[in-house]
Amino acid sequence: MFKNIRFFILSEGMLDIMSEAMLKSILNGMEALITVCDPESFEIFFLNDSIRKHFGIKGDGVGHLCYKLLQELDEPCFACPYLQLREKPDKTIVWEHRERVKGSILRKTARLIDWPGEKKAHLEYAIDITDTIKVQEAITQREMTLNILNRAAIIFISQNVETFIETMTAGVGLIAGITNVDKVSVFRNIEKPDGLYVSQVYLWNKAHSSITKVDKLQEEVSYFRHIPSWRDVLASGDYINGTVRLMPEAKMLEQFGCLTVLLMPVFNQDSFWGFVSFENLTDEREFTEHEVETLRSASFMLANAVIRNEEEKKILETDMHLKRMMREVEYQNQLLYTVNKISAILLQSNAVTFENDLLQSMGIMAEAVGADRVYIWENYIHDGELYCCQTYEWSEKAEPQQDKEWVKRVSYRKVIPGWKRAFLQKRCINGIVRELPASENNILSQQGILSILAMPIFLKEQFWGFVGFDDCHSERVFSENEEKILRSASELIANSLIRNNMEENILQLEVEVDKIFHDPLTNIYNRRFFDETMQRLVRSLSRSGGMLSLLMVDIDYFKKYNDTYGHLEGDSCLKIVAKTLCNSISRADDFVVRYGGEEFVVVLPNTDETGVRMMARKLLENVRSCNIPHEKSSAANYVTVSIGAMTGKAAHTHRVDDYIQRADEMLYDAKQGGRNRYSFASL
Question: Hey, which of 46, 145, 307, 430 would disulfide with 36, CB 3.0 to 4.6 Å?
Fold first, then answer.
């Protein structure tokens, strides 16, 4: 957009006919933040409506110093580009800048221009790219976190009794690194006659970069006497997060040098087992939502590894329970491996392959637990009531339901009222269908379901929907391990859906940006692309000493063509000529733009006089070969073109207008010579 502004303002002779009011009106129509000021004194000549609204400026701001009014500084901005522009007045500077007052990230473009009243002015054009940067950073951070959690999960899975400390140290170190915590502790509950106590059993310290088992029990702490609020909060599944000095338990925690703490509850077989503590010893802060969700997954893996290690020790102590416990561990490992495999598939997925990758992942989950059907339902609100609809389904040995009308709208209140209550309490629906309430039994039996596991999905504490697993061949209750691990896998899939939606939005933004540089009629590059590209091209070729050739192409007697055949046929003629010009070039660096109306420009970097003459003859012949009737043309009885061709060795002193002007002169010469021909001259 900036190049368009520059071309309009700086075109030869334009300032002689354009008033300052006209310029301001044009600049006020731009959505970008535009500042025009004196390059020496920094006095503001003009601020457009967008920048005044952005900074909340009342009045036009004219006469104020730009750095005082816009940045609240006492001297010019450190990043002001004028020193560079003073040395190279034709230079255009583009950079990204974090704006001081509002903290926005702006992509800025600056250039010296002529301003009415024979003034030199410093024009600065800025676009707010804060949201784009944040989306990109959020996607990058999420992918990095998922990758590290996946690596940590693999490490935890690989641990055994002999290597427990080493693998735990490696896994916890990865998790601590991505959330910047100094201490990680595992606390286990102890039931005593006078109430519930808690004791530290494992400690990881950043200073030593290792995890140690606390063999000699630390002083056991009574929930009732010392931390009465913790039990209710943690036992409910909630977490404790914040600055220690603001907590009622500050005195107890501060003796350990703890400034910030996040306590994440751990449940084992639906029982409040204990909690994992993540501590910061260097600064006060509150863990972000993203960090909380990351450490929630980490707590599950870490506590699961501790619990599994203890169970394996018990297995080794008694032959009676050995086979049973080993089968459980093996199956649990298999399910965890399934989660890791799904994680790997979805992390490598993109917008094109996502649906296939998602269905493949659902199939892997089904195979791991012996399910015949897996499906994802997403919630939505209609007329103030909560509904859900099935968005994805995988089925192998059961009749698919995805295309049936009933899955598009299901009311929790009317169809499955008990499910909503259970899901909001973060409980699963797990059991044999014939033992469920009659209303649920009827609808599930019609689908051939004998056993079902449906688990809620919460994203940022919001009830998002649920994932379900059907067994259509046997009656059973899914085990607790299956339920726990499938819950993690289901959350992973739901999060991947959100990430895919974000990626699709970014792709759509890229498509919209691409539209900016294309002519909607001919679908070739437009004038804006030409202006944006030519500045860079001239600078690049001037550094390498390359040649730059241009051909200005104009359809002969096109007004008469429109008057004779109508504008629809005129549009068709423009499309054919544009396609013909594009098909005539073959090198990757060459390109064609619609310059305006019936005028086109063919740009040939690194092409000398011989090459540009050959191309001019080729274009003339190829357009003639289209044999588009034109009975009102004085050049031929079919559509022809006139071409102004030029070439020159690029130099840093050249302006784009130099090339355009020379090609335009040759185009005029070709028309004066009778049209349907080309004229050539060097720059």
Answer: 46
The 3-class SS string of 96-138 reads EEECCCCCCEEEEEEEEEEECCCEEEEEEEEEECHHHHHHHHH
Q: Say which residue, 296 or 386, is predicted with more confidence.
A: 386
Residue bearing tokens 């819950």:
487
| CATH 3.30.450.40 domain residues, the chain | 134-317, 365-508
**DSSP character at residue 398:** S
Global pTM? 0.36
Residue whose pair of structure tokens reads 């797990």 in the numeric block: 430
Residue with tokens 């429109």: 562
Contacts of 591 (CB under 8 A, 6+ apart): 525, 533, 585, 602, 603
Q: Classify domain 365-508 by CATH number.
A: 3.30.450.40
pLDDT at position 12 over 50: no
Q: Which of 174-178, 518-522, 629-633 has the lowest mean pLDDT?
A: 174-178
> Any bridge partners for residue 392, and if so which?
376
Could you tell me which CATH class the domain 134-317 is placed in?
A: alpha beta
Tens digit of each residue's pLDDT (9 = 90 or more) over 53-75? 888 888 888 889 988 888 888 88
Class of residue 294 by CB neighbours under 10 A (exposed 0-12, middle 13-18, buried 19+):
buried
- 215 pLDDT tier (thresholds 50, 70, 90): low
| DSSP annotation string for 352-395 | TTHHHHHHHHHHHHHHHHT-SEEEEEEEEEETTEEEEEEEEEEE
- The CATH class of 527-682 is alpha beta
- Tokens, residue 532: 């944006």
Residues of the chain with CATH 3.30.450.20: 2-128
Is residue 84 predicted with pLDDT exceeding 80?
no
Strand (E) or helix (H) holding 554: strand 547-555
Domain 2-128, CATH 3.40.50.300 — does that match? no
Residue 137's pLDDT is 66
Q: How far is CA 101 from CA 56, 98, 583, 672, in A?
A: 11, 9, 51, 58
Q: How far apart are CA 40 and CA 424, in angstroms?
A: 64
Which regions of the chain carry the CATH code 3.30.70.270? 527-682
